[in-house]
Amino acid sequence: MKSKALISLSVLAALSANLQAKTVSGQVKDQGGLPLTKGKVQIMGTNKSVQIDENGRFTFSGVKPGKIELHVASSQHIHSSTELDVPEAGLVDVNIQVVNSSIEIFDVTASAFHASTIESAAPVSVLAGDELRKKQASTLGDTLKNEVGVHSTFYGNVASSPIIRGLDGPRVLITQNGLDSGDASRVGPDHIVATDSSTATQIEILRGPATLFYGSGAIGGVVNVVDQRIPDNNDWEGELLTERNTNNSEESFAGSLKGGSGDFAFNVQAFYRDADDYRIPGYAENEEAHDDEHHDDDHDDDHDDMHEEDHEEHDDEHQSDEKGIVENSSSRSKGFTLGGSYLMDNGFVGFSFEHMSSVYGIPGHAHGHEDEHDEDHDEEHGDEHEGEHDDEMEEIVKGDLQQNRYQLISQHQISSDWLSAINTSFAYTNYTHAEIENGEIGTVFANDSQEARVELIHQPMAGWRGGLSVHYKDSDFEAIGEEAFTPPSRTRSLGVGIIEEQHFGDVLVQLGARIERVRIEVPSLQIGEIELEGELHEDHDDDHMDDDMHGHSEGHSDIERFSGGSSSRNFTPMSLSAGAVWDFAEGYNLGVSYVHAQRAPSNAELYSFGPHIGTSTYELGALFNVDEDGDITFNSGGVEEEESNNIDISLRKFSGNFGFVLNAFYNSVDNYYYAAETGFIASDEHEEEHADEHMDEDEHEHSEEGLPVFVFDSVDADLYGFEAQLNWQATSSLRLRAQGDMIRTRLDNTENGRFLPRTPPTRFGVSANYVLNEWQAELSVNHHFEQDRTAEFETSTDAYTLVDLDLNYQTAYQNVDLTVFLKGRNLADEEARVHTSFLKDLTPVQGRSFIFGVRANF
């Protein structure tokens, strides 16, 4: 009897819970009264969201009585919010109408609460759908390089990272489904981003309050690559892609398949890409920059003859290079991902495994020496040795990347008085990057990282929606080899962040805060022999002083090899943000945001001491000082966090046939860490001894050039600029677009110049898109202006214009949508050099190319 009574009570409790859980349904229509067929509806403040069906209808079950807010999201329409009061009894059915938008609007997944491209106080960009497929390139930086406010580091078409408003490296966090990519792309420009975008559904570029959930490494922004490797539904869908590039014979294949049955879902993704050296209009090396460099270095008459001889020698070497090709720019990459999820009524939990490998050339960085030679070779002199030395100058350097990545993600909706959702994510990444020199392993970079984040989304409290984030990261980084410019280190961080938002009439207020503890541990400092020679230029104004007036002092310093003890640094970055979005008129809004953010300097910025192949420089961290005589000392004192104060203002019009987004920003940074050139040259004593034995005077003099010495300096800097994008749907078939951006930098300390190095140039572009039945064509012209606002020792970059054409034919076969496309890039075969690239004078952008491909979606 007791057992029956207990069963009866359980049944009554379940029935009571079901009676309290209501069903909310409705239909969404556009301005013309037609059902909306694409989009989703979300209950704000929860993980509950459903897709709109072909009749524009949606249904939620298990909704608790009380006030809720329904949010309708569709890329071609203005997002709509509708407040409802769910009663204790009865069904709820609602009709919602949405307004057409002149710009595409996407939801942002890299945010704890709902956000879209027009509902954020700070500018947010999302590349998705057909636009993503059209701009997709072999590297992440090149995929995003034409987005407003985003540039590329462009490393000879083999590696490229995004630059956001002049900030890159450790200031821009690259994430995959919200978790750090775990590679070494933040350390050097020759390291590729180990997150491929060929199977991505969208790529998000964030700034402002939402970035606080990702740590101090996101002080410049977050680039989040989103895919369905861990699916949250079991709908069947897939994509196959194949294409070929005529310029470098690149062949690409990519595919994904998502589906499932019942409570289980799976996702399979794979890609393969193989490319030869790419072709260019002229020679790879910029001869004008070479001439300018000699002109700047040689001032008196005693150097004129030497300069003329060097110039003639350079001409001979330049002509010996193969015209029309960037040597050692080939690459081969492949990877696959397996993922699966267990689906529940209140969320899902899933796991994925990814393997990625890539072997690619590192152009422009052949070494001119061998550190080890056998005795027989050392005994040989004269012409025979000179011929062998020439072969060594053509040494081929390649990168070999291997990465395994494991991810665990879960989202659960909670029916409690305090919490509405708990989101958890975990990632473990094993990453290695070996630099191969003539088939032999030179330097190996390895990074084992693990990351965990828990987001607690609370129930609306006094009208506020938001949540708390607890975030832990552990990175064990190691570089082994002769060109290991950073010591092994372990970086651990633990952060707590909170973001909140609330509507006050027509104004949406967004707030955020985060505190973090960062510890960098270096077990042992190994510093090699280095000799600094050359001239250290003193502070001067290039506009008011000619070459003869430049002061300088001869520098010469030896640092003996030593092994130091362990070193560690602790930082406590704190960040605050506040923003508001004001819908001041129908289809218009104004966004204003302020972010105060601190960042702990990275291991490379603090402890670097060695040759960096990726930049062809000898790098010294901020813990080392170089005085005007070339003497180097170790700074045992403290270093401070980088501190940024950023103001953003955005004006948006998004309704009707004409729309625009205008952004203005000002970013004042204290203790800005950047690699500043010292004017000295680093050489190795072993090289000099070898040169003395085997070279004549001219060859010895050439070998002593060595690598320019850069030291990470900490200065106050200002970055400010303007961004604009205008869209006009001129007719039902013709869409016109114009966009541009301008970035300015200014250093308060003019000792190393008035501008930051590699500041992106001003640019402007226009495009026209025309649709005729199954055909679609788009012509775009992008002009990059000359960049002559350069740092000390940096050369200017000429202007260039790139003309691109996209042609698509779309058809359907049974349940498969087929797209046959042709992409024309740099149709004018313009010689273009990217100012933000470390290799701008060695590797111009790809010449005229045509990419033919077929895409199938089902």
Distance between the termini: 57 Å
Number of domains: 2
The mean pLDDT is 80
Could you describe the largest sheet, including whether it forms a barrel? 22 strands, antiparallel, barrel
What is the strand content? over 45%
Give me the number of helical elements. Answer: 10
Write structural notes for this entry:
The protein is mainly beta. The longest helix has 19 residues, at 2-20. The radius of gyration is 29 Å and the shape is globular. The chain has two domains: 18-97, Immunoglobulins (Immunoglobulin-like, Sandwich), CATH 2.60.40; 125-285 and 321-857, Maltoporin, Chain A (Beta Barrel). It contains ten helices and 45 strands. Helix 9 packs antiparallel against helix 10. The chain starts with a helix and ends with a strand.
Task: Write a brief caption for the model.
With 858 residues, the protein is mainly beta. The chain contains 10 helices and 45 strands. α4 runs antiparallel to α5 and α9 packs antiparallel against α10.
